[in-house]
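Q: Got a minute? One more chain.
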Amino acid sequence: MKQGKIKFFDTKKGFGFIAPDEGGDDIFVHRNNVENLDYNQGLEDGEAVEFEVEETPKGLSATNVTSLDYK
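A: Always. Here it is, folded:
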């Protein structure tokens, strides 16, 4: 699994971006792909996360996202 930090997350819209620790392009993250996250919750800017990446027609997307700050 890859690791990175939340660059931006809009709780109202339910999505944001992860800056991977290994560098490269930011990766899109949607609330539905974050484990143990309720509808009205979000991720904090700078929060460390672990995730997998999938290629979508719109670009890279994070899946199976878990917070490393709350393990």
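A: Strands lie at 2-10, 15-20, 27-30, 48-56, 59-67.
Q: Perfect, thanks.
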